[in-house]
């Protein structure tokens, strides 16, 4: 079985507007690129990856697209656009012409206004996303889930994936009301990423403590759940690419077609990636 990683990051500290990581994150504070990924993934049968923005800047998105153009491993890019800018529809249309741009991700977790995505001034940009066949990566926290449910109902033709399962408070073992809210979005047809959960734990917690969350995600989303590494953010507390992949495979307890769907097929379908040519 080959792996499609639905969520990872590259960055260059020299890119204008770079905000994070900072020197306060010594494991992360260096350039990260395809060769670093290959070294981290080791013998993982990695067939492709989705490169996701890490900076809320146009320059970061342009840098990712230029890198992706010459890197076969990057099969799709999730970029960033200032959705509130009056010229956002034109920017979105221009980006959508790039063959690997598939989705946009406003950094909702960093916006104080939990309801921001529902603002009227964003409607032209979101309509442009829909018109140009793009998707929305929802970088949200549990506080956003009721809002996101209303958003999905308002824009039923815009494909939405919830990044990092909305970052439940795994450090405290809290599962409610996240459990009901995430299930509601699953019932509305949203997709979800099995990613980012290890970084919501404390460094001394075991991956096995994520079992209740993973079980609920599998039961709720079924074949609309996709695995992602969240590399290299994954490494900030010492976790490794291969260990998280092995833990996710073990905790998901999926076999056969379900396993292939979780670790490659769902991401391939959601992002419109090339078919496996094996």
Question: What composes the largest sheet?
Answer: 8 strands, parallel
Total discrete domains: 1
What do the pLDDT scores average to?
97
* Pattern of helices and strands: EHEHEHEHEHEHEHEHH
Reported by name, the CATH topology is TIM Barrel
Secondary structure: elements and pairs:
Blueprint: E1 3-8, H1 34-41, E2 46-52, H2 58-69, E3 74-79, H3 88-96, E4 101-104, H4 123-131, E5 135-138, H5 145-154, E6 160-162, H6 178-187, E7 191-194, H7 211-221, E8 225-227, H8 241-252, H9 256-271
Parallel strand pairs: 1-2, 2-3, 3-4, 4-5, 5-6, 6-7, 7-8
Helix pairs in contact: 3-4, 5-6, 6-7
Summary of the model, kept short:
With 278 residues, this protein is an alpha/beta fold. The chain is built from 9 helices and 8 strands.
Descriptive keywords:
278 residues; TIM Barrel; 13% strand; Amidohydro-rel; hydrolase activity; L-fuconolactonase; Metallo-dep_Lactonases
Explain what the structure shows.
It is a single chain. By secondary structure, the protein is α/β, with parallel strands linked by helices. It has a single domain, classed as Alpha-Beta Barrel (TIM Barrel). The protein is built from nine helices and eight strands. The chain has an eight-stranded parallel sheet. Strand 5, helix 5 (145-154) and strand 6 (160-162) form a beta-alpha-beta unit. The mean pLDDT is 97. It comes from Stakelama pacifica. GO terms for molecular function: hydrolase activity. InterPro entries: Amidohydro-rel (IPR006680), Metal_Hydrolase (IPR032466), Metallo-dep_Lactonases (IPR052350). Belongs to the metallo-dependent hydrolases superfamily.
